[in-house]
Each structure stands twice: as structure tokens, then as C-alpha cells.
Amino acid sequence: MTTRHPDVPERGLTVDDLAHTPDDGRRYELVDGRLDVSPAPKPLHSVVDSRLTIHLGNTAPDEFVVLSGPGVNLNGDRTLHRIPDLAVFDHEPPEEGYFDIPPVLAVEIVSPESVLRDNHTKRHEYAAFGIRSYWIVNALADKVGLVELRLEDGVYQEAAQVHGEDVFETDLPFPVRLVPHWLTAGGPWRGRIGGEAPGEDQATQR
Hints:
Elements: E1 27-31, E2 34-38, H1 43-59, E3 65-68, E4 72-73, E5 81-82, E6 86-89, E7 105-110, H2 115-129, E8 133-138, E9 145-152, E10 155-163, E11 168-170, E12 176-178, H3 189-192, H4 200-205
Parallel strand pairs: 7-8
Antiparallel strand pairs: 1-2, 3-6, 4-5, 6-7, 8-9, 9-10, 11-12
């Protein structure tokens, strides 16, 4: 659950006010000038974030920047500020302040307190901001799931939904293969998270 911080003023806040929030591990975002505070991520959430960031970073062409937890201003008056769990940009980070240009991909990892926010609130906010691709990763169920949403005429449409050991493949923002199971599973995840490339099995049997 997100909560309003008790020490913030009643006036509408902007990103400038975020400089005064405590460095306590929690996530501070702005929604229409109101401060939303989320708890620090739990270990499973952090594992998914770390593995996905590593995998996308290893896969991305050089012109892309893969970042965990970047601050993004979603409107011109800087009263709507979000921190995606992970985002991919096709331009360099700003020299100071936060991003104010849409990433080409935003990823949210669902936690118990973020189900409504990630699946509904941020879905509408990210679409309005023009983020072309939005992934929602659900690590709460027995099988890890991933939903890929693509922006069409200003609205997200579901492009793919995979679970467990199914292989997710996409070409947006760049070609990538991903097996959701290996976002959390123990074992040699680095070598298996990308799935088995087409023809690889036949090649290894020769």
C-alpha cells in the first residue's frame, strides 16, 4: 500500500521536493503533486529486478541504456513522477535531474502492495506518457509470469503472456528471449534465462 508521508506540506509537490525525502530505502513517487511512499523491495522482488537488469543489459545493443529504478517525470509540470523497477532508454541519461523523455520500455515487478498500481494506475500513466512497451512481471504465483503490453493508438494492448518455463520472445525494444522461471529459480540461471536458441538442441546432439 502506498501512503502519504506525514511531513509533506499540503500544497502540490514537484520533483524538487523529492530532494527532502529521507534516504530510508523506501520509494518516493509523485501523483498529481501528492507523495506516494512504497516499502523497500523484498528480497524476491530484488532478485527478479537484478536478474532481469543483467539479462537485458547483456542483450541490449550499445545504443540502449538499461537502468534499474530510474526516476522519470511523466508530465511537464513535474507533479507526476514515477520510478519503474526497470527501464530501457534509447538516449543517454540527463546530466542532472530526472528523465523527462519516455523510455522505450518500462518494467514493473508486482508485489502485494502494488497489484492495483502496476496493473491499472501505471498502465494508464505510462500509456499517456507514450512509453511504447510495458512489461508486468508477476512473481507472486507458483509460476512466474510476464505480460507484454504494446502501445497502439494511445492504449496498451496485450502482445504476449508467458508463464513458468515458456519462452518469451519479442523484438521491442530489441530482440530478446526470456524464460520467466529463471527470474527466481535457483541454479544456473545465467545460462538458461535466455532459453534455448532455435536449432541449438540439434546442434548439441551432433
